[in-house]
Specification:
With 186 residues, this protein is α+β, with helices and mostly antiparallel strands. The protein has one domain: OB fold (Dihydrolipoamide Acetyltransferase, E2P). The chain contains 3 helices and 9 strands. The chain has a 5-stranded mixed barrel. A hairpin with an 8-residue loop joins strand 8 and strand 9. Helix 2 crosses helix 3.
Amino acid sequence: MKTAKALIWCAAGIVAAAAAAKGAERLVSVAELSRQAEVVARVEVVQVTGAMVDTDAGRFPFLIYEARVKEAVAGACPSRIFVRVPGVAAGGRIGPLPDAPALAKGAEAVLFLKAGRGAAAGSGVYDLVSLGCGALPVATAGKEPVVLVPDRDRSPQGRGRVKVRFKDLAAEVKAARENHKHEAGP
């Protein structure tokens, strides 16, 4: 009975996460991601590991991204963090869910993070806000980093990306969080 219940939870979790990831890029703005995130950071991935992780609903596959924080845009975090992303186990390997971020070692990204569910406080373990778009790739254009941000207004079905200077994105994140503070009141 316990095994059947765990399998049902696993299947439901994977289906829900895949559905959320599939449409999330079109639905969540940078401002909304910023309001939901406890930490927003520009990172470099130093290691990618697949692991089965025990959760309160059972044991599930995850990709664990170990990352070096290059700059904390909002919130405080350690200089090295671990970001858990639900995955899919197949053929003895763990890979990303469809439309979930798949970051490679050496990749840079701006991550919108919340404390990892069930992780010890201060452990440096985080989960992405909005699985499908909580990780924005960073590229270098000359000396200045640029972030590839979903562009819902200028592309078919809102799934294209536009390059935004990192410093402009950082300012947008800070402004969104400041506006949210004022809207929420004292």
